[in-house]
Design brief:
Number of strands: 6
Distance between the termini: 41 Å
Mean pLDDT: 81
Low-confidence stretches: 147-153
Order of helices and strands: HEEHEEHHHHEE
CATH topology of the largest domain: Homing Intron 3 (I-Ppo) Encoded Endonuclease, Chain A
Number of domains: 2
CATH class of the largest domain: Alpha Beta
Strand order of the largest sheet: 1-2
Oligomer: single chain
Number of helices: 6
Largest sheet: 2 strands, antiparallel
CATH architecture of the largest domain: Alpha-Beta Complex
Length: about 150
Amino acid sequence: MDTTFLAKFRRGTPEECWEWRACVDARGYGRYQGDRAHRAAWQMANGTIPRGLCVCHKCDNRRCVNPQHLFLGTLADNNRDRHEKGRDGFAPRASEANGMAKLSEADVAEIRRLKAAGRYGIQRKLAQRVAVSEATISLIVNGTRWAGGVLSL
């Protein structure tokens, strides 16, 4: 792997996800030199991706670039894997299981705790603290929804 790529994530053990810390696209995938970062990682570790195949995540973490967490599959394989993991949009998932979530469950619990304790009397301060909109804070605090716009279940 080239040094520019290596600087954009922290390498852990082979079992751990190596989370991409640079540019991310609207779907939550890391971006590197015009491609998705996990595809670049797979190619650096294994060579060219054969035509017609996708690079899929065993770990189901869109930011993961650990080559040991990646595998090749057809589009049908990728769609089947995504469906089995509940990430195809047919069964919306609340919390961190939603690939579009911007906050973790811990973030949401902290927002609710701080609001309940009255430490942050206005939503603007909470929103700035966790880099989401005031409307999102309101929906979180009221229990209607949280990160990614997914209804709480």
